[in-house]
Write a structure and sequence with these properties.
heterodimer; A: 7-stranded mixed beta sheet; about 25% strand; disordered N terminus; B: 17 strands; about 30% helix; about 20% strand; disordered C terminus
């Protein structure tokens, strides 16, 4: 969302300036360096990071490391992992009413709620996933309401949300199906969910020019933040991330995308294995439910093999930790990808689903997701096959700063 | 597995002719050329290379590297495969189990077995994940939520057929208890504090001591179960997380002398020495992340390893559906990630649980005379890339990854949650009729 990004530009600059005091120069050498970029897997490779950015990637023999730079080594080195849809930071690990900020139930559609206003960078789960290799979260409002709020992209570090922030207003979190029904109120049916979304998008379409940069302020100066959020969808600035697990809900999401010419990211998508051709033809990207998510209710048809089937069908997808209402309070995308690899997904595709493919789906591929010159120096280190249960993450680097040396 | 299957079909046809009129279970079956983790012995995995397992009549009749294959045996080539005992899940809620209701916090009269739907998809799913013996428990929102059921995952219509029986022919199970936050409620009849929880339990045990030491009249079926607990005939499965709650459970055990298995024990690593000193075993769980409830904020991957190092006797459980039954091998893998020995983790899935439930004379290891409950795996049990090819229970193939009707339980997919028909029972009946003719 352009407006919000502009508003934040100042604070971002401050955050960047203040962080230059931190160590941001490091080289990471791996027996196997999985770049997830054009260079593929480099045997005995090294990635050199200066000023937080990657300045060189290549075989150790031909890639000079500046004198005096700290060198970390590990058997396997990958890009920092990306969780394509999380609620970490908003849904606190204590799971008590006062640390659950991923859902406000006072109205069914609240796209004006910003993740940035609710994110706790000190929640223990941020540290937990960071130490397990996750350097970027696409996080925000969760399931439970038709439109629950906005999402954002953060790095898993920072003393404040401003220091962690990469992008605010990334997507609008929308939910179709049983998780967003309210029998005592509206929407009480699936059809009503669609009618309400259609009305809101129609309204945004009709009023879409009112807040173009050149337009006059409306009479009375009143702004409608709900309308503005839907207008950002109509203008293509923020995709609707529609969580839909049942086939009919997934089809409704595709119908909405076509009707309004908007970008929809299909989230959850437990029944995706039933409509692979339709998904490919629609050109939609899928943020697949956690591979190990409990398969009851809306997920009763979920399959461990869906990720492999999406890959085979040529549907772009990423994996996510999703939202958990109980124990465990979050999933970990490293393990989700590993389990997908154990269920027929090629290991390189599994790694892509939590690195470069995830970066593309959240619109961040210019900056993260692969080890390429010019990208952020975000790296994860492993003592073996990253996907084996008994392997460990041995180090994590975010923008050149070593943020974890724990063995996890 | 296609070639294996073809060989099996051929062998079965031959066997039907040679061994008629014996049923399939009466014909010996020999699995040859496998790496077999027998779990026999006080430590290690009792691993045999290029070994043979022979089963007949639902029992193991031989296991070893140099076993003579009985005449007339169906021979299955298991070269390159790994065979190990079926998993013993020491804490699960599969089968739509229920227990106590909101009428009170202490209900030892209710029995899990009276609520289990044997056709619930969760049971076939557990089998596809290698689980063959389960302690099915009522929930933890009570101080005492009822009698647990030790379920042998055979395939039958009557819950009684899934039971483990004691020498008197009675069905074996434990008693579910809990402390900490789960039983705390504002409802009348429930405790509001931890001290109140302990006081209510203590009063109930005192009343049980009087009942059990007297005429036992009028008969009280809840108290009858308490007498079994006091006599050490019914194991207490004590749901307890926080280290101070664990110490309270140990205190109650000392006071009343019951046998106890600590269930979950998320903070048991903090009091591992104290637990070890009392010789109390732990049924542990590993979850993906800490939190989700106040008692689980200290969840980590190291607890099982800490307990093992302290000499505590540890098993692993799913608490399905906290962890899906199909992820039991993952639990063991994560325990190793947290520092547990590989052998210890494999024992924690099998023989240790069998010992804890008092069923080790029948399950938990592969040795002559025990139930023919075993798994055929495609490789290292602790690798994410290994698949379960077959699950055998009492000498019957009840999960076969080559059979799409079975595979859906392992992978999920459309209809995986539907109630399961008695496919295997029908197949067995058809097979037996064919044998007769």
């Amino acid at each position: 969302m352009r407006i919000l990004v502009k508003a934040l530009a100042g604070s971002l600059a401050v955050a960047l300036l203040s962080s230059t005091a931190m160590a941001q120069d490091v080289a990471v050498r791996g027996e196997q360096l999985w770049t997830m970029g054009p260079q593929g897997v480099i045997a005995d490779g090294v990635v050199v990071i200066e000023g937080g950015r990657i300045v060189a990637v290549g075989p150790s023999a031909s890639t000079p490391i500046p004198a005096g730079m700290e060198v970390l080594t590990a058997p396997v080195v990958t890009p920092g992992l990306i969780d394509a849809h999380s609620t970490v930071g908003l849904t606190g690990y204590l799971n008590q009413p006062d640390d659950q900020d991923q859902l406000d139930e006072s109205a069914p559609m609240q796209p004006q709620l910003r993740a940035i206003d609710a994110y706790n960078p000190h929640d223990r789960l941020v540290q937990w996933v960071r130490e397990l290799g996750v350097t970027t979260l696409h996080t925000g409002h969760g399931p439970g309401a038709l439109v629950s709020g906005q999402t954002m992209v953060v790095k898993t570090r920072g003393n404040t949300v401003e220091a962690a922030l990469v992008e605010d207003g990334t997507m609008i979190a929308t939910n179709l199906g049983a998780w967003a029904l309210d029998q005592d109120s509206s929407p009480g049916t699936r059809a009503k969910q669609m009618a309400m979304l259609r009305l809101a998008l129609l309204d945004a379409q009709c009023t879409g020019d009112a807040h173009d940069d050149d337009a006059d302020e409306p009479e009375g100066g009143g702004r409608d933040l709900v309308r503005e959020a839907f207008q950002s969808v109509i203008r293509g600035e923020a995709p609707l991330m529609i969580t839909a697990n049942r086939m009919q809900d997934m089809q409704s999401a595709l119908r909405l995308a076509e009707e309004f010419g908007i970008t929809v990211m299909l989230d959850g998508a437990a029944d995706a294995h039933l409509m692979l051709d339709e998904l490919r033809e629609a050109g939609v990207s899928v943020i697949l439910h956690p591979t190990m998510a409990r398969n009851d209710g809306e997920l009763e048809n979920a399959a461990f093999t869906t990720a492999a089937m999406l890959a085979e069908a040529g549907v772009p997808f990423a994996l996510q930790s999703g939202y958990e209402s109980y124990v465990p309070k979050t999933r970990v995308v490293l393990w989700e990808a590993g389990f997908a690899a154990g269920n027929g997904l090629a290991p390189e595709d599994a790694l892509a689903s939590i690195t470069i493919d995830a970066a593309r789906i959240i619109g961040m591929a210019e900056r993260i997701g692969s080890l390429e010159v010019g990208k952020d120096g975000d790296v994860a280190m492993f003592d073996g096959d990253p996907f084996e249960y008994a392997s460990h993450v041995t180090g994590v680097v975010i923008e050149g700063a070593v943020v974890s040396r724990a063995v996890r | 597995m296609v070639s294996l299957r073809a060989a099996v079909l051929a062998a079965t046809a031959l066997g039907a002719i040679v061994a008629a009129p014996a049923s399939a279970q009466d014909q010996p079956i020999a699995f040859t050329g496998a790496t077999i983790h027998t779990m026999v012995g006080q430590g290690g995995t009792g691993t045999l290379e290029h070994a043979t397992l022979v089963v007949q009549g639902g029992r193991i009749i031989a296991v070893g590297a140099n076993v003579a294959i009985p005449a007339g045996a169906e021979v299955r080539d298991a070269s390159g495969m790994v065979i190990m005992p079926g998993i013993v899940d020491t804490h699960s809620h599969i089968g739509q189990v229920s227990g106590a209701d909101s009428s009170g916090a202490i209900q030892p009269d209710v029995r899990a077995l009276d609520s289990i739907n044997v056709r619930d998809s969760s049971i076939a799913r557990a089998r596809s994940g290698g689980v063959t013996t389960v302690n099915i428990m009522p929930g933890s929102g009570y101080l005492m939520s009822g009698q647990t059921f030790y379920m042998h995952l055979v395939d039958a219509n009557r819950i009684e057929d899934y039971a483990f029986l004691d020498a008197d022919g009675d069905m074996i199970g434990g008693m579910k208890m809990a402390n900490g936050t789960n039983p705390l409620r504002e409802t009348p009849g429930f405790p509001g504090t931890r001290a109140r929880s302990a006081a209510m339990v203590r009063s109930h045990f005192v009343a049980a001591q009087e009942y059990c030491g007297g005429e036992r009249s009028p008969r009280d079926i809840g108290m009858d179960a308490m007498c079994e607990v006091l006599a050490g005939e019914r194991l207490v499965h004590f749901h307890t997380h926080r280290s101070d709650d664990i110490m309270t459970a140990l205190r109650l055990r000392r006071e009343f002398g019951f046998d106890m298995l600590i269930q979950h024990g998320i903070e048991s690593g903090r009091v591992a020495q104290e637990i070890a000193a009392e010789g109390v075993p732990v049924s542990a769980i590993l979850v993906d992340s800490p939190g989700g409830k106040l008692e689980a904020v200290e969840a980590n991957l190291e607890t099982a390893a800490t307990l093992e190092a302290a000499g505590v006797f540890v098993s692993l459980h799913s608490d399905d559906n906290i962890i899906d039954s199909r992820l039991m091998f993952r639990q063991a893998g994560l325990a190793v990630r947290g520092g547990m020995s590989r052998d210890g983790a494999l024992r924690a899935l099998t023989i240790n649980g069998a010992v804890q439930l008092g069923l080790d004379d029948r399950v938990g290891s592969l040795e002559e005379g025990k139930y023919a409950d075993f798994l055929i795996l495609t490789g290292d049990p602790l690798s994410v890339y290994t698949d379960i090819a077959e699950t055998w229970v009492l000498g019957e193939l009840l999960y076969d990854a080559d059979d799409p009707a079975d595979l859906i339980h392992a992978t999920g997919g459309y209809g995986a949650g539907n109630p399961q028909t008695n496919t295997h029972v029908l197949e067995r009946e058809v097979h037996m009729q064919e044998d007769v003719h």
